[in-house]
Amino acid sequence: MKADVLNSYPEYKENIDEQLNMLIEGDEHVFVVLDDDPTGVQCVHDISVYTDWSYESMKEAFNDKLFFILTNSRALTQSQSRKIHEEITTVISKLSRETGKKYFYISRGDSTLRGHYPMETDILSEGLKKD
User: Fold this and answer.
1) What are phi and psi of 13, to 5 degrees?
2) Which of 51, 65, 70, 118 is deepest in the core (most CB within 10 A)?
3) Rounded-to-integer distance, Cα 100 and Cα 104, Å
4) How many other C-beta atoms lie within 10 A of the C-beta of residue 111?
5) Is-contact 127 89, C-beta < 8 A?
6) What are φ and ψ of residue 72, in 5° steps?
């Protein structure tokens, strides 16, 4: 069934990983993926995953076009999650100014039952607006 669906879209018959890599490499942004749950990063390969968002770690991460930050905010209170996301946006914004690299956030957060949505994405959005 899955193959039938994919085959109905001829533009996706080729190697999807290769196509995605070309799109990412061709874009000027650094893609910062925030994941609120450790199970999400288990499905990625050949991508750096950071479990801290210190300036030093994020400076290293900014050498890549795409990287994950495991926030594990799903396990935290709303105020703890707020603090983490504000720290991340501050560090990423600072690095963007220092390196001249633009960035884009992708949120894999789905902690709606914990009251983290839309707070987490709102903080990321506000961080982007400041730059």
Assistant:
1) -70, -30
2) 70
3) 13
4) 19
5) yes
6) 55, 30
